[in-house]
């Protein structure tokens, strides 16, 4: 039996429930509630939320669209009452009022009407609240909703006197509502609703005079500091979700120019870093500083994947990285010993001290900072054709001047190489007159320590590997005859197709791993003779690996423990010195093991795909593996 369709009286009753229930609490401009009145308001908000949930679960979404929802008058009043509640100081009341608005948005999204009006209304509320707490007053932009200008003006008339008491707490509440609505849209996978949301949210972000907000957000300490932190935390979270959402929307409408809002956020980065971390990253609260650093690095990394960054932006980001994250870039690439039998921050991590927990967070931030730094370096060294190196697509506020640079591409490559060389010099000896074998060992040890740094975050690891693949190879390596292999690698993991399969079907690493494997297979197939003759030297006495393999139904029950210490490499020219500890593995043996691993992976993927158990369409990767198989048969 199908659910009953939404009728006009039902929606009318819902509007009356919101308006009649909340009107006694919002009729005056200066709201002051007693403890008893606060309890009653919390109870009423809970009842309203429950009623909306009931309608959501009993409404037949396949029924004809309800014309009653076209009447924005009822919705305007409901929004004005709920937004007014957000100006109260009680966090419990604000939280519940925000949840009612989020639930109401879910109800409206299912009904199919007034979605654009609701989102535009929330943006106007955001602009009004910012304007009322800022010395730089501005009027919210009216528009973006076809045929609804008069209704929006009516809403502005309702909201203007109510939001005179708005605070940063109110603005943070509105931002949290918008972010939670965006999370619901991501779960629903409705591209049409998402596009409307993204198209309308830009009005609010673009209209706010952010350059005049230092007096509000640039403080550090004082009575307003807590409210400032709450707002900035919500705002950075929202921007991270907003930028990420562009990845999930397919076939963006021509009316939605994502570059406009993304470039605005890029131009905001210097401000955001200053507001969150203070001058030179000197934030008073250490825990808050770590959180802000994490979210800001996430935001910058996501922006770098969403839009090609031109030379000016990349160079300005180097300046920001050095100002706010320099100690992370220079920090030695040491590894924290992890406990694998309990979650991070779990009370069962009894053997880990506070200092070691801090080191864990530091390693996470170090991974993010180095990844972003290298991404900026490689983007300048090997720019994409669509980066617009000569086109100043972003208006930078960093104080850098590029007017007198004749060849921006050449300048960018030199800058990228210089930054990379300087960073490597911090971690590697620059004195080439030292013992050659010692120098080479240090270089190899750094390379392996660098990769091990990312082993505990697989998603970042594959993004890093893809970034390294994007760099143009040098015409000739300095020591082409020298090959090395880790003493600390476990041989079975080198050629275990189950490890690759686990990565491919993982929600976090699947897409990045598939892309990385595709590019590696293309290199293998294009350089087939080199691949078949590849040989390695490795020690077999101390076999351990720092990555624990997930156990699948088809794999053995054994687990692979973390390595007990840093890896040591043996170059080819040291073979005689360590001859008794080495086992030579011929090119034929290495080729055979790699072939068996990849062909087993192909079979497993085909079996899962035939049963519709693969989480995404793997046909492109299977096609590349089929080409590999054909070359194997010819071999």
UniProtKB/TrEMBL annotation:
All copies of domain Protein Lines C-terminal, residue ranges: 595-630
Organism of origin: Theobroma cacao (Cacao)
Name of the protein described by the UniProt record: Golgin candidate 6 isoform 1
UniProt signal peptide: none
Recorded superkingdom: Eukaryota
Pfam family, one: LINES_C
């Amino acid at each position: 039996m199908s659910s009953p369709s939404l009728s006009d009286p039902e929606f009318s009753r819902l509007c009356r429930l919101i308006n009649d229930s909340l009107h006694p609490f919002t009729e005056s401009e200066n709201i002051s509630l007693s403890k008893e009145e606060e309890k009653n308001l919390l109870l009423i908000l809970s009842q309203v939320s429950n009623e909306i949930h009931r309608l959501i679960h009993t409404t037949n979404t396949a029924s004809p669209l309800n014309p009653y929802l076209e009447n924005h008058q009822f919705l305007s009043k409901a929004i004005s009452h709920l937004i007014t509640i957000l100006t109260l100081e009680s966090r419990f009341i604000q939280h519940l009022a925000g949840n009612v608005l989020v639930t109401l948005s879910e109800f409206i999204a299912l009904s199919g009407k007034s979605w654009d009006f609701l989102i535009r209304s929330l943006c106007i509320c955001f602009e009004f609240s910012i304007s009322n707490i800022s010395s730089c007053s501005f009027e919210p932009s009216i528009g973006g909703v076809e045929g609804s200008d008069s209704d929006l003006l009516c809403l502005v008339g309702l909201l203007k006197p109510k939001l005179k008491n708005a605070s940063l707490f109110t603005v943070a509440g509105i931002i949290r509502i918008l972010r939670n609505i965006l999370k619901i849209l991501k779960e629903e996978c409705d591209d049409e609703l998402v596009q409307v949301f993204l198209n309308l949210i830009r009005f609010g972000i673009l209209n706010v005079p952010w350059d005049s907000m230092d007096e509000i957000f640039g403080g550090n300490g004082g009575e307003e500091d807590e409210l400032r932190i709450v707002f900035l935390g919500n705002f950075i979270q929202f921007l991270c979700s907003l930028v990420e959402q562009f990845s999930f929307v397919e076939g963006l409408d021509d009316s939605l120019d994502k570059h406009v809002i993304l470039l605005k956020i890029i131009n905001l980065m210097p401000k955001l870093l200053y507001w969150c971390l203070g001058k030179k990253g000197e934030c008073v609260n250490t825990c808050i500083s770590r959180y802000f650093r994490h979210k800001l690095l996430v935001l910058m990394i996501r922006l770098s994947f969403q839009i090609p960054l031109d030379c000016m932006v990349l160079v300005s980001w180097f300046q920001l990285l050095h100002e706010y994250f320099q100690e992370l870039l220079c920090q030695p690439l040491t590894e924290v010993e992890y406990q694998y039998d309990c979650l991070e921050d779990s009370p069962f991590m009894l053997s880990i001290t506070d200092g070691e927990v801090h080191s864990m967070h530091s390693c996470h931030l170090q991974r993010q900072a180095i990844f972003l730094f290298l991404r900026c370096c490689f983007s300048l060294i090997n720019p994409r054709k669509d980066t617009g190196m000569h086109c100043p697509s972003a208006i930078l506020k960093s104080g850098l001047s590029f007017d007198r640079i004749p060849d921006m591409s050449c300048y960018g490559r030199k800058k990228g190489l210089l930054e990379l060389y300087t960073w490597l010099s911090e971690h590697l000896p620059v004195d080439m007159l030292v013992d050659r074998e010692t120098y080479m060992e240090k270089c190899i040890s750094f390379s392996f320590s660098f990769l091990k740094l990312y082993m505990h975050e697989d998603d970042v690891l594959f993004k890093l590997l893809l970034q390294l693949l994007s760099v143009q190879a040098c015409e000739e390596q300095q020591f082409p005859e020298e090959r090395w292999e880790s003493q600390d690698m476990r041989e079975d993991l080198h050629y275990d197709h189950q490890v690759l399969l686990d990565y491919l079907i993982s929600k976090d690493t699947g897409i990045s791993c598939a892309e990385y494997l595709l590019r590696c297979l293309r290199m293998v197939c294009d350089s087939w003779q080199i691949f078949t003759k590849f040989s390695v030297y490795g020690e077999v006495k101390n076999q351990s690996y720092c990555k624990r393999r997930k156990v699948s139904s088809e794999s053995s029950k054994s687990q692979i423990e973390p390595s007990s210490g840093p890896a040591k490499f043996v170059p080819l020219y040291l073979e005689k010195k360590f001859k008794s500890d080495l086992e030579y593995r011929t090119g034929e043996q290495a080729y055979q093991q790699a072939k068996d691993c990849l062909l087993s992976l192909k079979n497993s993927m085909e079996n899962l795909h035939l049963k519709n158990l693969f989480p995404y369409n793997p046909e492109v990767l299977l096609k590349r593996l089929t080409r590999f198989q054909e070359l194997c048969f010819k071999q």
